[in-house]
Amino acid sequence: MSLATTTARSAWRRIVDTPLINALAAPHGIGRYLEVINPMWSLDNTRIPARITNITRETDDSVSIELSPNGEWTHFQAGQFIQVHIEVNGRQHNRCYSLSRSAFTTKPRITVKDHDDGFISHYLNTQLKVGDRIAISLAQGDFVLPTQIPSALLFVAAGSGITPVMAMIDTLLEYKHDSAITLLYYSRNKTSCIFKERLEELAQQHPNFSLLMVYSQNDSTAEHGLQGHFNQQHLLKALSLNPALTEQTKALSLPLSYVCGPEQLINAVQSEYELLGHKDKLLSERFKAATAAQYEGEVAGDIAFNKSLSNVANDGRNLLEQAEDAGLNPQSGCRMGICHTCSCLKTSGSVRNISTGEISHGEEHIRLCISQALGDVSLSL
């Protein structure tokens, strides 16, 4: 964005975003009226209007969606995610999706895999059209490349966990970094492999980028005869493909590594790195919320929603799901404890953090999506 454009936007904001204007526009706020005049206008950079400019079918169950946001959008770092706000059947839904394109692009892109239990992911895969408008947030998250790029990097991804990794690899290669880059990528089979052709093309074009795809289903044409799930053999094979990492591989000295995907993959990679004494070299991002495990004793107590004057019997699931099933519509985004959109004040009671196991007692802000009630709990909802 040019200095002139920024100055003009600031002047326009000063004119319309004043206490008097907002008082006259109450209770909806001036932003709602601006949307009526032009759907691409906004004052709120947490809900930036974006037009769908292209939709690419990546696999049978995944699409890439190119976005053209208004001038409130700013630069992002490869590996970050955005919150997507979309209205379906008159109800607002919020979800988080990683950006899947180089950070140098002017049009951000998300790639969405259609999950059996994912209402919004299914909608985006089957109903969204070029020309439609949605709202997005500014980019968030710290699963990003370091300021100083090291001489070697290893990425491990599975399924839709490839999306932030794709953005990082694209960014590194577009910037022409000469680091030794290796990707170990898992999918069910060749047809379910997101970005397969693009990754193979990059591997052919860039000698410093090595790619190893491993399929969990039986495949007689599997690369190097490797199949199944992550193990040390796969790790060492991936590293051996990059000549720059030959000595490191022999010494079992691992480069800075990123892993993204389902919980099973994250746990396996973390265990292997801990075994090899390189846990400090691994950064991870999960693409599925932790499951609410049964705690000692029976599920008991009631959950009171103070603002709505309602309550439900605690069934042991996370508080976000229980609130939604009770007819409430709390704000939410990633649904896995990353974005903090569902943060809510707990006024009394104790909850367990599903991800860490930590217990929160008494009045405290909690994230509903990863909080499990331990008896009676009151929430400011």
Describe what you observe in this structure.
Keywords: 2Fe-2S, FAD, Flavoprotein, Iron, Iron-sulfur, Metal-binding, Oxidoreductase. In the N-terminal section; belongs to the FAD-binding oxidoreductase type 6 family. By secondary structure, the protein is α/β, with parallel strands linked by helices. It folds into 4 domains: about 1-35, no CATH class; about 40-145, Elongation Factor Tu (Ef-tu), domain 3, CATH 2.40.30; about 150-285, Rossmann fold (3-Layer(aba) Sandwich), CATH 3.40.50.80; about 300-380, Roll (Ubiquitin-like (UB roll)), CATH 3.10.20. It has 10 helices and 17 strands. The chain has helices at about 5-15, 20-25, 30-35, 120-125, 160-175, 195-205, 230-240, 245-250, 265-275, 320-325; strands spanning about 50-60, 60-70, 80-90, 90-100, 110-115, 135, 150-160, 180-185, 210-215, 255-260, 280-285, 300-305, 310-315, 345-355, 360, 365, 370-380. The model is unreliable at about 1-5 (pLDDT under 50).
Task: Tell me briefly what this model is.
By secondary structure, the protein is an alpha/beta fold.
| CATH fold description of the largest domain | Rossmann fold
User: How would you characterize the largest beta sheet?
Assistant: 6 strands, antiparallel
* Beta-strand fraction estimate: 25-35%
- Proportion of helical residues: 10-25%
SSE series: HHHEEEEEHEEHEHEHHEHEEEHEEEE
Q: What is the typical, i.e. mean, pLDDT?
A: 86
What separation lies between the terminal Cα atoms?
39 Å
Rg, Cα atoms, Å: 23 Å
Low-confidence stretches: 1-5
Output the CATH class name of the largest domain. Alpha Beta
Can you list the strand order of the major beta sheet?
A: 4-3-6-1-2-5
Protein name: FAD-binding FR-type domain-containing protein
Pfam families: FAD_binding_6 (PF00970), Fer2 (PF00111), NAD_binding_1 (PF00175)
Domain FAD-binding FR-type: 45-146
GO molecular function: 2 iron, 2 sulfur cluster binding; metal ion binding; oxidoreductase activity
